[in-house]
Design brief:
Helices cover 5% and strands 34% of the residues.
Length: 157
């Protein structure tokens, strides 16, 4: 699965002794199918095919006022695929040891985010629409909303 250059992280991973291409992170960019047509392009997705989990919930974020951030939490079990359907925004992901920032701005590139990854969405362009495909229905008990609790959980405290 190749990653278009415009979807590469905008900051380098931390300095692990393992070469960056061999480090397994609990997130990754995914090129989604794109059917090009002069009348307009089309991308279709199916859970357990292009999306690495069964899709149990879908939501979208839009009309985000300038300077606002969304997310700012992790999930104990939930997995997500985050896609910029329109406009652009940055997704910042952190597994407790490494942080990466991705500028999402193509409807055919998704960011897969696994469980126990702190995520935050920011720098929304005017009229940006963020689509999120989730692996489970909403469950408040799955959220980790405290940064300190997140750090303690990933460090096994």
């Amino acid at each position: 699965m190749s990653v278009p250059e415009e979807a590469s992280p905008t900051s380098a991973p931390d300095s692990d002794p393992v070469p960056p291409e061999q480090v397994v992170r609990p997130w990754r960019l995914v090129n989604l199918p794109k059917i090009e047509d002069p009348r307009g392009n089309l991308t279709a997705l199916e859970g357990l095919r292009e999306i690495p989990f069964a899709i149990r919930r879908v939501y979208w974020i839009y009309n985000v006022p300038g300077g606002e951030k969304r997310g700012g939490h992790a999930y104990r079990e939930l997995q997500e695929m985050i896609i910029a359907l329109s406009g652009s925004f940055d997704a910042v992901v952190d597994d407790g040891t490494s942080t990466a920032r991705y500028s999402l701005n193509r409807g055919y590139v998704g960011l897969y985010v696994s469980r126990m990854v702190w995520r935050q969405l920011e720098n929304f362009s005017t009229n940006a629409v963020c689509l999120v495909l989730a692996s489970a229905p909403y469950d408040e008990r799955d959220y980790v909303r405290s940064r300190q609790e997140f750090v303690d959980l990933v460090r096994g405290r």
